[in-house]
Amino acid sequence: MFEQIRKFIDQHIELSDEEFQTLASKFHPVSFDKKTKVVEIGDITTTIYFVIKGITRRYFYRGKQEVITHLVRENGIMGSVISFLTGEPSRYILETIEPVTALAISKQDLEGLFLSDKKWEKFGRKILTSFFLQIEYRNLDNIRFSTKERFINFMKQNPDLVMRVPQKHLASYLEIQPETFSRLKHLMVKEK
Amino acid sequence: MNKAFAEIDPIYFEYAQKYLGRFMPITREELIDLLQYCEIRKFDKRTILVKEGEIDNYLNLVVKGLVRKYLPVKKSECILQLATEGHVVQSEISYLTRTPSLVVLETLEPTILVSLTYDKMEEALDKFPKGERLGRLILSGMFIKKDESRYNRLLKSTRERFFEYIEHHPHMLQRVSQKYLASYLHIKPETFSRLKAIMTKRKK
After folding, report:
1. Do B147 and B169 have their domain in common?
2. What is the ipTM metric for this complex?
3. Is the pTM value of this prediction over 0.80?
4. Tens-of-pLDDT digits for all 204 residues of chain B?
5. How many degrees, rounded to 5, is the angle at CA A146 between CA A145 and CA A150?
6. How many structural domains comprise chain B?
7. Where are the domains of chain A?
8. Which of B96, B136, B151 minimises the CB distance to A91?
9. Given an 8 Å threshold on Cβ–Cβ distance, is A136 in contact with B146?
């Protein structure tokens, strides 16, 4: 469990074993059944999670339609991150798709770390930088690539998600109409 | 550099203080200390600040003028930001990852920027007493803003986005061509004209 998070952290910052222990001691294991709403709209979140196993989606409603903005699986951070950062009510619902095992950390513990040493501030900045880059790449890719290109890129980079996530969720996440999604999927099978 | 900053327009301080004050309280002394890491850059209108494929080395606070950021798409372009006084503008991905920029930055008016190079940023993060804290909070703010604009883009209709933008930025209709505003709002130029006509009627 903790090996997974160590690997994740090593990608962002170098920590001694002792430092890692300090961080690890702040996390505690949690699990959720499939289709559990971990965060509801209006909740003020004070916990975020590192996913050990399972997959979740984050979405909001436009009218009656769900708009999925995030799919998070193993070794990703799940949470209503904006609410966590700002202390404001969540605009999103965080719901598991599969049963999820995760490591949870509270805002209080995280801020305690930030105050204790600037090394942790740097760690926080690195993680936030990766969140920022992820959303900005998606913004630019949505503009510079066609629907078909985005579909193909996504399938190449995330073959596992196709198996694990219902098609309507994938279509919403990719901002593609469900009918278009079906047509493109058919096309990709042919290309193989 | 120190001397140059002693002589600059106090309004630059004000913009810098206002920007940084969003993240944490900053005293005047701290601000002067931080500004030592920055440089002031002046450009004519229609100057390309960052080309596609070039590594953007600057984080810029606009203290005078207007910068547009756009993404070239096939034979066209899509405007991502119209930055005016008090706004921060840069090719973020390029600056943060030291990779060639996908976007272009160009001034539309004579422009003055308070700029921080990547190396100086690293230095400030390390040496300025609250550097790492400020760095984290700025990144946090940048991320929250991106998420918010994405949320609004997905939630709101063209019409809503148009009226909200014009309400909050009424001066932009005078400063920027309609074509650019339409591109920024992801609205077809014809639709933009139609919405503008509706707006003018409403006002009467």
Report:
1. no
2. 0.93
3. yes
4. 455 555 667 888 899 999 999 999 999 899 989 999 999 999 999 999 999 999 999 999 999 999 999 999 988 999 999 999 999 999 999 999 999 999 999 999 999 999 999 999 999 999 998 999 999 999 999 999 999 999 999 999 999 999 999 999 999 999 999 999 999 999 999 999 999 998 888 776
5. 70
6. 2
7. 2-135, 145-192
8. B151
9. yes
